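Researcher: Go.
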Amino acid sequence: MSRLTVDWVACDGHGLCAVLLPELIDLDDWGYPVLPAEDVPDRHRGHARAAVSACPALALRLRGA
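Model: Structure:
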């Protein structure tokens, strides 16, 4: 099981994670990610890894991958 997390100190609200993984990540009114409370489904794990790798602030993480 794996879960997305955000380092809120590092996150600048670029929103790229939501562009790359719209199935799981929404943005709040200020552009910061709203993450799912559940584990990342297997079918989305590759896209989740890509979103983590593309985060310009290195704030998005995939725990337990």
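Model: The mean pLDDT is 95.
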